């Protein structure tokens, strides 16, 4: 896809509003404490530096230099989330998936009618703003490569999610029902915010 087409699809005003809201939340949200392992891994990520070449690779070699850095704020966040969701599914004992798809939230009736705990999870799995949006058409293509890139360059992302979510899952004592799924999704959101802060600092 051409850069011009990308610019047509993507509103910069919308983007800047989002970033300033995020930076504001960085200043106001207290960071919950967790094990030293998680803090060390997250520090390694936030203290790292991505070269221009790496930024362009992460952006699928479609976007150059500043443009690549610019869209990588979204690519990084969506990709670290997909890695995290894959670890969440695996902690819950469900089949992992690393596919980033456009998706709309389910209706309340659908959620209430979920026949199994796994079906319930699939309906309740967090959906990002970009997955709901009918813009950002470049993302579905870029995410699979970005998952590979992050797994190689920052294996700590997956390790942090795995360690954190397995620990939370153990605290459920092996009982996995719909309430347990809600609890795990809540804990997922907490660690996702922390990983998101660390990867945001790469851009
Ligand atoms: C990352 O994604 C999450 C969930 O989709 C969102 O709440 C958060 O604001 C995003 N962070 C940035 C820097 O865009």
Description:
Residues 1-21 form the signal peptide. Keywords: Signal. The protein is an all-alpha fold. It has one domain (3-200). It contains eleven helices and no strands. It has helices at residues 3-9, 12-28, 36-46, 52-58, 65-92, 108-112, 117-124, 129-132, 139-153, 155-170, 178-200. Helix 3 runs antiparallel to helix 10, helix 5 crosses helix 9 and helix 10 runs antiparallel to helix 11 (178-200). The longest helix is centred in the middle third of the chain and has 28 residues, at 65-92. It is globular. It starts with a helix and ends with a helix.
List its salient traits.
disordered N terminus, globular, mainly alpha, binds 2-acetamido-2-deoxy-beta-D-glucopyranose, 69% helix, 203 residues, signal, 11 helices
SSE topology sketch:
Elements: H1 3-9, H2 12-28, H3 36-46, H4 52-58, H5 65-92, H6 108-112, H7 117-124, H8 129-132, H9 139-153, H10 155-170, H11 178-200
Helix pairs in contact: 3-10, 3-11, 4-5, 5-9, 5-10, 5-11, 7-11, 9-10, 10-11
The protein binds 2-acetamido-2-deoxy-beta-D-glucopyranose.
Ligand names: 2-acetamido-2-deoxy-beta-D-glucopyranose
Tell me the number of structural domains. Answer: 1
What structural class do you assign from the helix and strand content? mainly alpha
What is the H/E string? HHHHHHHHHHH
The residue ranges in which pLDDT falls below 50 over 5 or more consecutive positions are 1-16, 27-31
How many DSSP helices? 11
CA-atom Rg in angstroms: 17 Å
Strand percentage lies at: under 5%
Keywords: Signal
